[in-house]
Amino acid sequence: MVMATTTSTAANTSLASVTLEVDDPEAARSFYSAFGVDAYIRLRASEAHSTGFRGFTLALTVAGPATVDSFVGAAVDAGATVLKPAARSLWGYGGVVQAPDGTTWKIATSAKKDTGPATREIDEVVLLIGVEDVKACKQFYVGRGLTVAKSFGGKYVEFAPGQSGPVKLALYKRRALAKDLGVPADGAGSHRIVLGGTADAFTDPDGFVWEAAASPAPTLS
Predict the structure, then answer these.
(1) CA distances from 71 to 65, 93, 126, 143 (A)
(2) CA atoms of 97 and 79, how far apart (whole Å)
């Protein structure tokens, strides 16, 4: 399959912040600080009903297997549950954990061997949202002003990051994403996540809510 790349610079919307809706913000703040990803998210108290797969994951790309293990270990020590133990695969090395608030996190590297010691450095954070129709959702977001960076037909779309936020946005088939995370695809209720954008508020075709966000996500302390 040929990958299509769009280089338009006319985008007027980008992902500026990611807010997780949690039952206990203080407990979540403690977990994410220990996990080492607190600079990439915001937290908001919410008791919105949610069951099963919430339709998204946050994915960390790091330098090597030892660093994957370091992040997985930190998450587990702070209270996370392992959904998929870190292991080698055809594409590299990675694992999946679920935070105490229910958010899934994938930690991965394309490297199959370490070239140095483990670090606590993150190369990239991507918010992967699972959608029913990747092509239709892609067109929706293009219409909102986002710029496509990578597109693999109806399977995967990645948008160009804006200067205002530390997290990239990507689209994936919902069932394929759930399978990759090792969880059932069924789920209902709130996604328990709010995306902050550089333009007006809206809700996408799969129910993901965007709100206006004037500044990037701060480091939690």
Answers:
(1) 10, 13, 16, 37
(2) 10
Instruction: Walk along the chain (221 residues) and give the pLDDT tens digit of each residue.
Output: 333 433 333 347 789 999 999 999 999 999 999 999 999 999 999 999 999 999 999 999 999 999 999 999 999 999 999 999 999 999 999 999 999 999 999 999 999 999 999 999 999 999 999 999 999 999 999 999 999 999 998 999 999 987 768 999 999 999 999 999 999 999 999 999 999 998 889 999 999 999 997 554 444 43
Measured between alpha carbons, how far is 108 from 94 in angstroms, rounded to an integer? 4
Backbone angles phi, psi at 206, to 5 degrees: -100, 10
- pTM here is 0.90
Do residues 140 and 204 make contact, with C-beta atoms less than 8 angstroms apart? yes
The rounded distance, in Å, linking the Cα atoms of 200 and 218 is 20
Alpha-carbon distance of 91 to 97, in angstroms, equals 19
Angle between helical axes of 25-35 and 65-77 (0-180°, round to 10): 150
15: left (phi over 0), alpha (psi -120 to 50) or beta: beta
Look-up of token digits 């948008």: 159
